[in-house]
Amino acid sequence: MTSDPRTTSAQAAVLEVKDLRVSYTSGKEILKGISFEVGPEDFVAIIGPSGAGKSTLIRCVNRLVEPTGGQVEFLGQDLLQLNEADMRRQRRNIGMIFQEFNLIDRLSVMDNVLTGRLGYMGNLRSLFRLYGKDDIAQAVQLLDRVGLIDHLDKRADALSGGQRQRVGIARALIQAPKLLLVDEPTSALDPKIAREVMGMIRGIAREFKVPVLCNIHDVDLALEFCDRVIGLQDGIKKFDGPPSSVDKHALADIYAMEVL
Ligand code: ADP
Question: Could you tell me the pTM of the whole model?
Fold first, then answer.
């Protein structure tokens, strides 16, 4: 039987965003009908000027920001149609890495990673943070993978910025996510550490076979580490293609500059 290539690619997509629209309470439309797909092996960078809506777009996917229109199909299910309980269950499958790391400072590195398992636990076990042996073994393994095995007992606030982001990476991975959302992972880091962190996210995405959607304002990092680039400007998708086709004209269009 021959298959419709469009259907095949739609089935292969992990995430399909269609005509996504967002207005905050101020009423101004921030995302003005964004559509794109993320395939199972994609590492997609979202670039664009400050205020273009990159962070809003990332946060709409797991409904940290509530879209006002469109569809967010994740593994074939429109997340915008889910009730709160079903959305909570789906959030387990979507790992998130944040700009400010979002760690709990007074907890150990190990406990911070283990919080990534809370979504899988019943109310009582999660209230008392009663993690299973398997979770603990996996946290140790992931901390080893991100190079923090010697720091697992330290309080999170005793670590450097780069180390804190690696805790954030391990915490996202212990969820066994089917998609990673990454929101400005390097803007709190100096350039050398920023490259290390991006390299680690890319290496891990490949190793764990998890697609990534990454908001990153640093174009050089986006071009170096990602294999697809979406350019946003004022809530509109201006570009969608491989890094090799991001030339000065594409950048001028995304950043609304004149080509010199
Ligand atoms: P980017 O990540 O591209 O810098 P953002 O998604 O953070 O852009 O912001 C897009 C626009 O939405 C900006 O004009 C910003 O001021 C506005 N915005 C972001 N968050 C909120 C919010 N919680 N309430 C109202 N406006 C917001």
Answer: 0.91
